[in-house]
Write a structure and sequence with these properties.
It contains 14 helices and nine strands. The protein is α/β, with parallel strands linked by helices. The protein has two domains: 214 residues, no CATH class; 81 residues, 2-Layer Sandwich (Gyrase A, domain 2), CATH 3.30.1360. The strands form three sheets. It has a four-stranded antiparallel sheet. A three-stranded mixed sheet has the order 3-2-5. It has a two-stranded parallel ribbon with strand order 1-4.
């Protein structure tokens, strides 16, 4: 959360609690849209996640009189012009992901003293500091700005592959979101007025425990992740036809392998038979052009490169 990271002297525990305690506002906004569009009650489960993503991003330029979440503002992330209501919908996706990760049962941690944590200062799932629900906000804003496609919102299923077993298809695909249409609908262009919502926060919805939050809890000693868990999945590349596959590398890989080995992974991958070119999009996503290889063969090549 940018507002956390920009001020070293801030009370990051208080900021994290404030964000967690505003959960209900975001969930009620998301539930209002869900119930209007789907005609059924909203529950933040793995089974409903993909449809919640589609709805939240399709309505991210709609209007309602609601305050923005903590990460949205002058010191926040670039939002791509979404409204405060749209930011609340996207914030609701973060709490949806938190529920999938088990936050209601596990509780929350925020790490402030140890700079090794990739999500330092952010609320993370207790005992699992690599699981930051706020990743949902970051990725959704990338989608809203047009930087990546909506398929990147599949990230929870890479962080925890066991979730795939209970997630009904189809997976999120590029065609699920017509970004220009969503923007036009929210901004009133082409003789369309922005859709305005009346949000009722007085009802009984989502009055459940949020899970407590601990600042600088002692890290849980976890078993080391295996190579197969750190390099876990391959999908068709979003950058086709320039690249054929994209490889998901767990954010814990650098800590597991060491900075030198982690930094050399892309170069070693480019040397693997059948890999013609490599592009690292960010810390967790690598695109490759390997027209003669299957997805399984690309995955095997990525693991060989990591093992060298």
């Amino acid at each position: 959360m940018m507002i956390f990271a920009t001020d070293e002297a801030a009370d990051h525990g208080a900021l994290a609690r404030r964000w967690v305690n505003e959960r209900r506002s975001s969930e009620v906004c998301l539930a209002t849209v869900w119930e209007a569009e789907r005609g059924a009650g909203y529950e933040p489960t793995t089974e409903t996640y993909r449809d919640a993503v589609r709805l939240a991003l399709a309505h991210a330029w709609d209007e309602a009189r609601v305050p923005p979440p903590l990460w949205c503002g002058a010191n926040g992330w670039p939002t791509g012009g979404i409204t405060s209501f749209g930011a609340r919908l996207i914030d609701g996706l973060a709490f949806h992901v938190a529920s999938m990760y088990g936050a209601d049962a596990q509780g929350w941690d925020v790490m402030t003293s140890d700079p090794r944590y990739a999500h330092r200062y952010e609320p993370v799932i207790r005992g699992m500091p690599w699981r930051s629900p706020l990743t949902a906000c970051r990725v959704a804003l990338w989608v809203a700005r047009g930087d990546v496609s909506i398929s990147r919102m599949e990230f929870p299923f890479f962080v925890d592959p066991t979730l795939r077993a209970v997630a009904p298809g189809p997976e999120l695909r590029d065609g699920d979101l017509h970004l220009a249409r969503a923007r036009r609908g929210g901004r009133g262009l082409l003789r369309r007025r922005p859709r305005r919502w009346d949000i009722d926060f007085s009802g009984p919805r989502f009055r459940r425990p949020f899970g407590d939050l601990t600042v600088d809890a002692a890290p849980v000693v976890e078993r080391p992740l295996t190579l197969e868990e750190l390099v876990s999945d391959v999908m068709p590349s979003e950058l086709a036809p320039d690249y054929t596959h994209q490889i998901w590398v767990h954010e814990a890989a650098e800590g597991a392998w060491g900075s030198e080995r982690w930094g050399a992974h892309e170069a070693r991958l480019a040397e693997q038979p059948g890999i013609e070119k490599v592009l690292g999009e960010d810390r967790e996503l690598i695109h490759v052009y390997a027209p003669t290889l299957t997805a399984d063969e690309v995955l095997a090549a990525a693991r060989r490169a990591a093992a060298e």
